Give the backbone structure.
Amino acid sequence: MMMEPLYPEIAKSYKSLFPFKVGTTSYIYPAPILPNVVKLAPFLDEIELVLFESSGQENLPDPSQIQRLKKISTDWDVR
């Protein structure tokens, strides 16, 4: 039996569809930044990375994640 995903996939790309940019933040799905960017990049023009640093919790990307984010940005033309 096939299970439906917990969160629906984006059905349509809005990339370059309008004379303005369509974007979102990096926290749409309940996951870290990188999985969100991977899922969102094919569908949007811009993804704003939400970074925070506080005692006991942070989400600052490490150098390898930064390189991966840069590649995604280039590959999908996301700013």
User: Anything to note?
Assistant: The chain has a mean pLDDT of 89. The chain is about 30% helix and 15% strand.
